[in-house]
Design a protein that fits this description.
By secondary structure, the protein is mostly helical. It has five domains: about 1-250, no CATH class; about 285-340, Muramoyl-pentapeptide Carboxypeptidase, domain 1 (Orthogonal Bundle), CATH 1.10.101; about 350-385 and about 390-450, Alpha Horseshoe (Serine Threonine Protein Phosphatase 5, Tetratricopeptide repeat), CATH 1.25.40; about 480-535, Muramoyl-pentapeptide Carboxypeptidase, domain 1 (Orthogonal Bundle), CATH 1.10.101; about 545-655, Serine Threonine Protein Phosphatase 5, Tetratricopeptide repeat, CATH 1.25.40. It contains 29 helices and no strands. The protein has helices at about 35-50, 50-60, 85-100, 115-125, 135-145, 155-170, 175-185, 195-210, 215-225, 230-245, 255-265, 285-295, 310-320, 330-340, 350-365, 370-385, 395-405, 410-420, 430-440, 450-460, 480-490, 505-515, 530-535, 545-565, 565-580, 590-600, 605-620, 625-640, 645-655. Helix 21 packs across helix 22 (about 505-515) and helix 27 (about 605-620) runs antiparallel to helix 28. It starts with about 35 loop residues before the first helix and ends with a helix. The model is unreliable at about 1-75 (pLDDT under 50).
């Protein structure tokens, strides 16, 4: 290819980015003024980096130290379940209301059936056992999410006013002023713990996009897509604008996206979607069924125009994976989530045939070794407006990343792999393959296709040759069930699953939970898709005792160096682990990447820290607790602030309690 996709605006994955290349400008804390007005903060960010912006924002009037709470440290949370009552239940209800879409949960202090239902919904979206019991893992996930802490009325009023002012500037076309205000909010310690984080980050990305800062826009869109608890609506809109930023195309607001979708549907103007539920029929139901089929893996939903029990079941699955109330009613929020996903619109047969021909041609070029030609074709599809609304977006982005990878464009490959992992609706199989190739791209190792990955996994097993997995369901028994139980217990948090070789009711329950978190039909049957997802997820393969024994002392040494403050030494050890081919198949992958990011942050390598935090947030199987901590430390890295461990994050949250 004669021309690179990103040009000079590509995010620097090799540490040479201008984001953290210049020391922060010294500011006079007494004047508390922005240099050269609102536009100056933008110039400072572009010329001196995020650390300089952090120094500036730390001196702004809105950025004041919080008043210390009476408690010296955060108190442990009690275990709560249905029937409990008191202040701890009120705290639980406040937090759930902030992080679960459409919770409609009143703060009563009584753990009733509605609270039980919302707790279970949060546990499902956090890959925890949906038992309705708020124990240590559920509390940790709530606390780690932005939105896990309620703030005082004074701070709430201040932040709402700041957001309103920034929105008004954005709507009036003063994008530089809006960005300056959004960044002030982003840097505010109180705002770090509010549920509006996803929308705020999306708005920051939109400002950079409209100002032509495409590299910064891409980075913030990836952050918005990877934030734990972000709805499909924001995630889908961020995914589409990320695509546009890569192509240096203008930012699109919600109305513009809806109008463009309507054009593909043959409508002069976008029509409002009707509310649909079981028993309804007509063209709107057909449209719903088409969209669900494209947005859900293994939907097997026929377009009949009748809202039957199968449609109801698939709609609830989509609502669960989109963090919406699974009530089987297609209302405004559900329609918005479907429309925002790539795949939310059906295109005409002529465009469909044209795109399929381009994909076939690109695949043939890739398979023949003409990677540059394949990349040119894939990028033509990526730039096509019709392709933006197709469910094949995840696979397309993965193929683009693979081309860059094979051509030695490791920075571009890493960026596209992260996009593939963060896309709403992408299945665990593709996400896992992208995660492993992202690791290889960071290490400048060659690209691996599916067959090569499977062969490498087989080489790590005691038996050298890979065998096809059998179809398993309740009542099955034998070595294959034992292998299934080993894999699924490492991929599903709090599974408490014993390896017995017997496919019992507990095994079926855990399989269904894995299928839900992988966007598969939760039928409890382990077929090719479920096996593929398990194999591709980090932690999906047990290694032998010798491999574990070899890795453990390196990990222990790295942790000891990290705890002692020797971050350069710890980073060297963690990267030794990261480069080990065995580590790709261990469940400690997310935690190790998180520590790598923390080392870079403590060493002042803020851009590298941001890149690794984005990897943590996108890794399949990374729990809400770790993803939330990564999200907060990524925010701090953007602002040039130091790394915070779990105890420090918890202590800071405690200071914001009213």
């Amino acid at each position: 290819m004669s021309e690179r996709v990103h040009g000079d605006d590509s995010p620097d994955r090799d540490g040479a980015s201008r984001v953290a290349a210049v020391r922060p400008r010294q500011l006079d804390p007494e004047t508390r003024e922005r240099p050269d007005g609102l536009a100056g903060i933008l110039a400072l960010q572009r010329d001196a980096g995020n650390d300089a912006v952090g120094s500036l924002l730390a001196s702004a009037p809105v950025q004041r130290e919080p008043v210390a709470a009476p408690e010296a440290a955060a108190a442990p949370h009690p275990q709560l379940s249905i029937g409990a009552s008191g202040p701890a239940v009120s705290e639980l209800q406040e937090k759930l209301s902030l992080v679960v879409a459409e919770a409609k949960l009143n703060v009563t202090g009584h753990f009733d059936s509605h609270t039980d239902e919302v707790v279970k919904r949060f546990q499902v979206q956090s890959a925890l056992k949906p038992d309705g019991i708020a124990g240590p893992h559920t509390w940790a996930a709530l606390d780690s999410l932005r939105g896990g802490t309620e703030v005082g009325e004074e701070d709430q009023t201040r932040l709402v006013a700041a957001v309103r002012e920034a929105n008004a500037l954005f709507d009036a076309g003063n994008v530089e002023g809006a960005l300056a205000d959004y960044m002030v909010i982003y840097s505010d310690k109180v705002a770090a713990h509010k549920a509006a984080r996803g929308g705020l980050v999306f708005n920051i990305a939109g400002c950079h996009h409209r100002l032509g800062h495409f590299s910064e826009a891409i980075s913030f869109y990836e952050e918005a897509m990877g934030l734990p608890g972000v709805g499909a609506d924001v995630g889908g809109s961020a995914a589409e604008n990320l695509r546009r930023a890569r192509l240096h195309q203008p930012y699109q607001g919600t109305k513009e996206m809806e109008t463009e979708r309507a054009a593909f549907a043959g409508e002069e103007t976008p029509n409002a979607h009707p509310q649909l539920s079981l028993g309804v029929s007509g063209p709107a139901v057909s449209e719903l069924q088409e969209k669900l089929t494209m947005a859900l893996a293994e939907a097997k939903l026929k377009v009949t125009g009748l809202f039957d029990s199968q449609t109801n079941e698939d709609l609830k699955r989509f609502q669960v994976q989109s963090a919406l109330k699974p009530d089987g009613i297609a209302g405004p929020d559900t329609w918005a989530a479907l429309d925002s996903l790539r795949g939310g619109i059906e295109i005409n047969p002529a465009d469909q045939a044209r795109l399929e021909a381009l994909v076939r041609e690109a695949n043939a070029l890739f398979d023949a070794g003409n990677v540059e030609g394949a990349l040119t074709n894939y990028m033509s599809i990526y730039a096509d407006k019709a392709a933006a609304h197709k469910a094949a977006r995840g696979g397309l982005v993965f193929n683009i990343a693979g081309c860059h990878h094979r051509l030695g464009h490791f920075s571009d490959a890493a960026s596209f792999y992260e996009e593939a992992m963060a896309l709403p609706g992408v299945d665990a199989e593709l996400s896992g393959s992208a995660a492993e190739n992202l690791r290889r791209a960071r290490l400048q190792q060659p690209y691996q296709g599916t067959k090569e990955m499977e062969a490498e996994r087989a080489a790590l097993k005691p038996d050298a040759a890979p065998e096809p997995h059998p179809l398993l369901s309740i009542g099955s028994s034998g070595p294959a069930v034992s292998e299934l139980q080993e894999k699924v217990r490492t991929a599903v948090a709090e599974s408490n699953l014993k390896v017995t070789g017997q496919f019992d009711s507990h095994t079926e329950e855990v399989v269904k939970r894995f299928q839900v978190q992988s966007a598969f039909r939760p039928d409890g049957i382990v077929g090719p898709h479920t096996w593929g997802a398990l194999d591709s997820v980090e932690g999906g393969l047990e290694i032998d005792a010798a491999g574990s024994a070899r890795l453990k002392p390196v990990r222990d040494a790295a942790d000891a160096l990290f705890d002692a403050g020797d971050f350069a030494g710890a980073l060297s050890k963690y990267m030794e682990l990261y480069g080990d081919p065995v580590i790709q198949h261990k469940s400690i992958r997310a935690g190790m990447v998180y520590k790598i990011a923390g080392c870079h942050q403590n060493l002042g390598h803020f851009q590298e820290a941001i890149n690794f935090y984005q990897e943590v947030m996108s890794l399949p199987g990374a729990g809400a607790e770790m993803a939330g901590s990564a999200a907060e430390n990524m925010r701090r890295a953007r602002l040039g602030e130091p790394f915070q461990d779990s105890k420090e994050l918890e202590a800071e949250r405690a200071t914001f309690k009213p």
